[in-house]
Amino acid sequence: MSRCFNFSAGPATLPLEVLQQAQVDLVDFRGTGMSVMEMSHRGKDYMTIHQNAERNLRVLMDIPENYKVLFLQGGASTQFAAIPLNLFGANRSADYVNTGAWSKKAIAEAQRFGTVQVIASSEDRNFTYIPTLTSSLYSADADYIHITSNNTIYGTCYPTLPDVGNMTLVCDMSSDILSKPYDVSKFGVIYAGAQKNIGPSGLTIVIVRDDLIGNALDITPSMLNFQTHADSGSMFNTPPCFTIYMAGLVLDWMLRNGGVEAMEVRNKEKAALLYSFLDQSTLFNAPVEGDARSIMNTTFVTGDEALDKLFISQAEANNLRGLKGHRSVGGMRASIYNAFTKEGVEKLVEFMKDFERSNG
Ligand code: PMP
To answer: Is the pLDDT of residue 129 over 90?
Structure first.
């Protein structure tokens, strides 16, 4: 068996022991004579898998009783539309913070259904920082305030959550959910695609406070209405059973390994290794400003596109894969989610040092 160090932004590396467990279970899931992919989603074996995954998530994130956990499909991108459809009231008005490409997509989708105020943006410096939010920025008639907690493409993250008082905070947490403790009670809705910290792609998690369910606009399709899925325990239609099973294994792995608090310690250690090298490097530069630096996605450049290209190809040849920055920003990006090992980060730093010696 030969596994590379996979720095991809999502789908992303999974814990090896989770993949091995899936391999053991694949053809005959624990004596059932069939794979999880072949089981009825209404049968008791699958129902146990589904309920365990939800229970694990509730324990890991300490989700209060008055929040529903929905297991959906369509990616975080579908939630860009579902959020306004479910949360807009009579004014159909919301505040959004523009911290990058995913925020922009969320804004564009909400604009189809109502009025969006972009109350702050970091676009003026190519999204290398997180704007400061103060209550004077919030619109009095906004039904909610939307943020993207971690900006996967630019490698920025909110150093602290904005205080929105009594307003409803909605968060696209796709790329840092479960990477550190978040106080769920501070949010009205949290949503995330699974393919970074939770499991394979195909599952979208929505955590929504009970009072925000049941008020969707009349035009809302059933499949986008939170009530549909809350009422049916996410079994209105066929769920992505195998992805939920995989997510359950990843969540088990997290619980066995100290939960979200331990993940944060490891993630901070890994990120510090990279950033401390970058800060003293004479060749590489990390463009993101200090306290906005993500511990999940580290972006860096040499300042010379040809050299960046050479770095990426030599890294590939050294088993360090997926380091190419997003096509919209170029340079390099190392995504180091929960399942990414410290050993992999050490290997990358070693390789960067060698590359600097040869090309600096
Ligand atoms: N939001 C963020 C922060 C993301 O990183 C991504 C995907 N990389 C998305 C939304 C879109 O997610 P999906 O592909 O699940 O629709």
So the answer is: yes
